[in-house]
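Hi support team,

I've been running sequence recovery on a batch of backbones for a student project. Most finish fine, but this one hangs at about 90% for roughly twenty minutes before it completes. I'm not sure whether the input is malformed or the queue is just slow. I've pasted the structure tokens below so you can try to reproduce it. Let me know if you need the job ID as well.

Thanks,
M.K.
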């Protein structure tokens, strides 16, 4: 079980360590870094996503802590079938007129979970019985 800030911290580290290098051109890298800096400045950005009924069904919470294991398992199972998942970078006139995408695979999911664990000071995600 992880707090929102522990999850966000792991995602920020993934963006810093892995996504910015995979972002390709300078504009895509700028947009990925912009997202990272927005998360750093305001981790509460993810609160709306965590309230979404679909997300809540795969990331259960209890007392302000979230169990990411069901989501991780679902993503990895799906990626085993599909290979990768594209993350679309939005089309932004003058900056990124065509849009762009970054693809994630099971290795990326493992890295994100590892960074979340590292941020939380644990080795593996835990669930309460």
């Amino acid at each position: 079980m992880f707090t929102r800030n522990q999850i966000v911290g792991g995602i920020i580290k993934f963006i810093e360590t892995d996504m910015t290098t995979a972002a390709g051109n300078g504009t895509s890298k700028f947009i990925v870094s912009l997202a990272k800096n927005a998360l750093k400045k305001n981790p509460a950005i993810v609160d709306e996503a965590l309230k979404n009924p679909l997300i809540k069904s795969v990331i259960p919470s209890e007392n302000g802590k979230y169990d990411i294991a069901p989501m991780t398992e679902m993503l990895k199972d799906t990626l085993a079938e599909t290979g990768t998942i594209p993350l679309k970078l939005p089309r932004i006139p003058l900056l990124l007129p065509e849009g762009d995408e970054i693809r994630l695979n099971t290795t990326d999911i493992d890295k994100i979970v590892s960074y979340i664990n590292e941020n939380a000071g644990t080795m593996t995600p835990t669930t309460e019985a």
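--
Follow-up from support: It reproduced on our side and the slowdown came from queue contention, not your input. Helices lie at 4-22, 26-41, 47-51, 53-58, 69-82, 106-120. No action needed from you.
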